[in-house]
Amino acid sequence: MLTKEYRIAMPLTVDEYHIGQLYMIARHSNEQSQGGDGVEVVVNRECTEDEENMSDNHKAFLKEREKHTKGQFTEKRVHLSSRLPYWLQAVTPRVFYITEKSYNFYPLTITEYTCSFLPKFRVEIYTKFENNNGSTENVFKVPEEEYASVTIDHMDIAFDELSNPKHYKEDEDPKFFKSSKTNRGPLMEGWRETDKPIMCSYKLVHTSFEVWGFQTKTEDFIHRCIRDVLLLGHRQAFTWVDQWYDMDMAAVREYEKKSQEETNQKVLADTEQIPEVPEKQEEFTKDLSEID
């Protein structure tokens, strides 16, 4: 198992990002879904911190909340048949999806990814949101002897480069974006030390693929994909702020519902039209949905 902690600062408050996160996930999933690939929403319902399928670790993590209100559980299928790198396409079925289960008890979330075809594959993500620039050490209270081996990645949504140039859009670049509604941006060098407000998404990510000969390469590949998803998604959450800033929870939930219906139609419409495996495909299109 390979574990890393990602810290992603944003020029927002934790309360603001509660709306922004939901808007970003719904819109991003919709935009990335097409031709049988993308994110199918299977379940979206309220949940409690004592859900039957939760592990003891999940329940212990959620007990840290100050307010024990209901959360939101989602189960999704991330269809990836034509988007896997060639070396993975060779050993996976033509119709391939990863199951995502997420418990959102904002400002704490838990997300896990599994695949029935690859029983040794598992990704588990614990998230905390705090109103600071990433300065809290060991926010997940990992035992010190374990935490010493965890890589800490301080991500910069403005100056870290996207790995795939085709995902770059100038109007989604925080170095150039100026919000008309909040007057925030563009983000300048050193913004994480000077800009206010500021918050941080802390993410503890465990990846596991315990298959001899594939483990190291696959776990490292998964982390690279996750980092790309985090960078793109958080850039979009900020640069789309003028679209979601005036929404309340009811409005963003309605937007989420409509977007999920559209996304499901896109994904399910072409599930019988299974694409041919290309001769070579080195890129893994980034559309894991709930890596918020």
Explain what this protein looks like in three dimensions.
The chain has 292 residues and is of the alpha+beta class. It has eight helices and eight strands, in the order βαβαβαβββαβαβααα. A hairpin with a 2-residue loop joins β4 (97-105) and β5.
| Number of DSSP strand runs | 8
Helix proportion range:
25-40%
Number of helices: 8
Can you list the strand order of the major beta sheet?
Answer: 2-3-4-5-6-8-1-7
- Main sheet makeup: 8 strands, mixed
**What overall form do the CA principal axes indicate?**
globular
* Overall pLDDT: 88
Helices and strands, in N-to-C order?
EHEHEHEEEHEHEHHH
Task: Please report which band the strand proportion falls in: under 5%, 5-15%, 15-25%, 25-35%, 35-45% or over 45%.
Answer: 15-25%
Q: What class do helices, strands and sheet pairing give?
A: alpha+beta
Radius of gyration: 19 Å
Pick out the low-confidence regions. Answer: 273-286
Q: What is the terminal-to-terminal distance?
A: 22 Å
